[in-house]
Design brief:
Number of strands: 0
Radius of gyration: 16 Å
Distance between the termini: 41 Å
Order of helices and strands: HHHH
Number of domains: 1
Largest sheet: none
Number of helices: 4
Protein backbone atom coordinates (compact mmCIF):
# COMPACT_ATOMS: atom_id res chain seq x y z
CA UNK A 1 0.00 0.00 0.00
CA UNK A 2 2.97 2.33 0.47
CA UNK A 3 3.78 2.33 -3.26
CA UNK A 4 0.15 3.01 -4.01
CA UNK A 5 0.20 5.99 -1.69
CA UNK A 6 3.47 7.38 -3.10
CA UNK A 7 2.28 7.11 -6.71
CA UNK A 8 -1.29 8.30 -6.19
CA UNK A 9 -1.35 10.46 -3.07
CA UNK A 10 -2.42 13.51 -5.06
CA UNK A 11 -5.65 11.70 -6.07
CA UNK A 12 -7.05 12.13 -2.55
CA UNK A 13 -7.63 15.24 -0.48
CA UNK A 14 -7.26 13.36 2.82
CA UNK A 15 -6.55 9.97 4.37
CA UNK A 16 -10.23 9.17 4.90
CA UNK A 17 -10.95 9.51 1.15
CA UNK A 18 -7.97 7.29 0.35
CA UNK A 19 -9.06 4.58 2.80
CA UNK A 20 -12.63 4.69 1.50
CA UNK A 21 -11.37 4.18 -2.06
CA UNK A 22 -8.96 1.42 -0.99
CA UNK A 23 -11.56 -0.54 0.99
CA UNK A 24 -14.78 0.15 -0.93
CA UNK A 25 -13.87 0.75 -4.58
CA UNK A 26 -10.45 -0.67 -5.48
CA UNK A 27 -10.53 -4.32 -6.65
CA UNK A 28 -7.84 -6.42 -4.96
CA UNK A 29 -5.79 -9.04 -6.78
CA UNK A 30 -5.77 -11.48 -3.86
CA UNK A 31 -9.57 -11.63 -3.84
CA UNK A 32 -12.14 -12.70 -6.44
CA UNK A 33 -10.98 -10.99 -9.64
CA UNK A 34 -13.84 -12.41 -11.70
CA UNK A 35 -16.17 -9.92 -10.03
CA UNK A 36 -13.50 -7.30 -9.15
CA UNK A 37 -14.10 -7.94 -5.45
CA UNK A 38 -13.25 -5.17 -2.98
CA UNK A 39 -12.02 -5.63 0.60
CA UNK A 40 -15.48 -4.77 1.96
CA UNK A 41 -17.17 -7.34 -0.29
CA UNK A 42 -14.67 -10.03 0.74
CA UNK A 43 -15.22 -9.22 4.41
CA UNK A 44 -18.98 -9.69 4.04
CA UNK A 45 -18.59 -12.84 1.89
CA UNK A 46 -16.27 -14.46 4.45
CA UNK A 47 -18.38 -13.57 7.50
CA UNK A 48 -19.60 -16.67 9.34
CA UNK A 49 -23.40 -17.31 9.43
CA UNK A 50 -23.51 -17.00 13.22
CA UNK A 51 -22.22 -13.43 12.93
CA UNK A 52 -25.06 -12.59 10.52
CA UNK A 53 -27.56 -14.12 12.94
CA UNK A 54 -26.10 -12.07 15.80
CA UNK A 55 -26.33 -8.87 13.75
CA UNK A 56 -29.93 -9.60 12.77
CA UNK A 57 -30.82 -10.37 16.40
CA UNK A 58 -29.42 -7.04 17.59
CA UNK A 59 -30.82 -5.02 14.67
CA UNK A 60 -34.36 -6.40 14.85
CA UNK A 61 -34.33 -6.97 18.63
CA UNK A 62 -35.37 -10.63 18.35
Amino acid sequence: MDDLYIHHRDWFSNLEDRLLWYNEEKPHGALNLEIAETLSQAFIRKMRPEVWIGLATKTFKW
